[in-house]
Design a protein that fits this description.
The complex is a heterodimer.
Chain A lengths: L1 H28 L13 H11 L5 H13 L14 H36 L4 H15 L2 H19 L12 H31 L2 H9 L3 H13 L1 H5 L1 H18 L5 H11 L2 H29 L1 H9 L1
Helix pairs in contact in A: 1-13, 4-5, 4-7, 4-11, 5-7, 6-7, 6-11, 7-9, 7-11, 8-9, 11-12, 11-13, 12-13, 13-14
Chain B lengths: L5 H13 L26 H11 L1 H18 L1 H4 L21 E5 L28 E6 L7 E6 L6 E7 L10 E6 L6 E4 L7 E10 L1 E12 L3 E3 H7 L8 E3 L14 H37 L1 H16 L2 H12 L8 H28 L2 H8 L4 H37 L11 H9 L7 H28 L8
Parallel strand pairs in B: 1-9
Antiparallel strand pairs in B: 1-10, 2-3, 3-6, 4-5, 4-7, 7-8
The chains are: A mainly alpha, B alpha+beta.
Amino acid sequence: MLNYILKRIATGIITVYFIATATFVAMHLVPGDPLASAKAMRPEIRANLEKKYGLDKPLLSQYGVFLGNMLKGDFGISYSEKNRSVNDIIRSHFPISAVLGLLSLFFATLGGVLFGAIAAIRRGKITDRASMFFVILGISVPSFVFAAIAQYLVVKLNHTAGMTVLPVAGWGTFSHMLLPAVVLGIGSLALQTRLMRSSMLEVVHQDYIRTAKAKGLSPLRIFLFHQLRNAILPTVTILGPAIASITTGGFVVESIFAIPGLGRYFVQAFQQFDYTVIMGLTVFYGAFLVGMVLLVDLVYGIIDPRITIAKRNI
Amino acid sequence: MIITDPTGAKKLDSSMSQNILNPQDFTLVIHTGPKQEIARPSLSYWQDAWIRLKANKQALISLIIICLLLLFTLIGPLVWRVDPAEQILSRISESPSLTHSAIVLPPLKPFVAEVIPTIEAAPQADGAILPAPTNLEWLDKPSVQSVRMRWTPVNGAAGYLIYRSLEKPRGGFWGLPVGTVTSGNIVSFEDTFNLKPETIYYSVLAQNGATSTHAITREITLTPGIALNEARVLQPNTQPGDKIDYPLRPFGTDYLGRDLLARLMSGARVSLFIGLFAPFISILIGIIIGGLAGFFGGATDQWLMRFSDFVLGLPFLLFMILFRVALGKGAGESGITPMLIAWVALAWPGAARLTRGQILQLREAEFVQAARIMGAKPFYLLIRHLLPNTFGVILVSLTFAIPGAIFTEAFLSFIGMGVAPPTASWGSMCNDGIQTFLTYPHEFLTPALFISIAVLAFNLLGDGLRDALDPKLRSTP
């Protein structure tokens, strides 16, 4: 077990290192340099700036400086937002994205587990068919379409009601978070529902369920402690990819709902070729995602002993 | 008595009832037909799969939809010969409709607001809530170019507010303020905003320091009209009052006055090209790498698989964006090639893993061992036995990769990291359309609908193919 954890952590670290290197290389493949976009400046100022950012050094030593700074947790200063460090951007905007992501993840998991379980238990009935239809819809319709339609409907609703039932954009209160979180979670919700349904279907016909029924346990108790508990495991595996899709999906939802999260900065940085912000945010996001997937896998190994044994043998 | 022949049984029964056994009952029955008959025609793997697929209604409908989409993409532009880049500036953001004629409007005469001299222009405000003006009437002939109105003045009003709304005003919501008359004795107004042929509600409120809560509202349905100078571009020598035929725009137009149907067709070419071609190439590379790893095993396998695990571990969309930015240099690039390269570079490990697994499994299969014992060369084994048997699984993973690629293209183009304008793709059309979504939903919804339908169809076909090609993997119904 320990061996496996160490191995996974090592792979994770190598992956993050590769992410950093690839970002660095990719950024230097793009023609022009970060200072070219700035307004015309005198050569001596330019030289000073280059010196400040370490752009005057050869590429390899720039790479060394970049990695060194990264180890210290310093991603440099944004080029387009003067005097603002990338760390500061992350510190002030990541929490917003994280809250949104967590809320939508919570929504997706809760809804997925519930809908999937109910669909499996009422298999073939109208509830099952309806939930499978929504699963297909959730998988096939991009999140930006949901976002736009949700916004449109809420605008109409607010108009009909003659007051703001739900805010359609902005950030601040819980009601601001509700709509974007639901929209962001729909894709994952659909996947969770499908997964939960199929794993629940397997559990429903197990012998121990029959035993439980024979013992005379109430259906609710069987559902909660025997069926749900055994079927819920696979939903944990999907959490890793779900976190990834929710984080990257956040770019779109954040810009549609005008949420001051990190995702908007990420897209903005690419559009403005803000080198340090691109590099900093890519490495940060990459490390975050790799770490999350790793964490989920480890947790999965701990809560399901069968998985651990299987993995150790590989 | 042992009876084996069912046809004999009946005879026996009848004879038993008579209790008489004839010598004929003991004659030898001679079989004339074949000893063993195969009831069903022998089917190859693919024929069998096709039968199973045909039985799956969802998958079959999806297949038809995909064929229709391909027809739309390939044959569509030959039938619908409208240049997707052609702009008609008088037809910006037009809703989908089949009507395509308009009345040529006479040139606008200058508008002179009517002043009633007997009324005080700015009476003293006394704080009383003013009543609504009465009798709102249209002057001249209202058209999409200009709506002119007049109302009877309100005593004590220092001015009037004019609102326009697309819905019947209620609850104190009058719509968009389109004008203010700052004098109580001016009782007419002209709204000359670029109007659409639709039903509009105008409301007029009197104001007197404070705005009145009472308004007069009247609706008007405008008929399609075209300005004389614009009509003469389409058809010279047109006179005001003539009817002129526009080119048909069944899906409406976008915010630059371009035909949405033609744009959807050219966008489909880009979206489906990326959606089909990118997975195809990446799976081809995956097959080669996975095949090599599985076939040679040992150190090759170790290295190739560690590398593919590693690429698989990278955050996919982050790297798509990164590669897209790094590879797509220079202005005027459509952004299609960088996206293809990025997709291929990141998406091959899935197919490689799958192929490797299949090859490893098949290598030990009895029929392969039999072939090996009979002296088959490795190359023959690979071509004749291993690859054809992995083909089903590969095909399924290809159909599942297609919706993923369409989705990724749409996502990236939507955030402006994919196909660059003016090249149309469904994703970039959504990006254009979302700007005006609240007012003209069709510009966003049509490409979004196409994306959703394509993704849906490929997903369902993938499900069906998986069930048809590998009944063992059949998902629980």
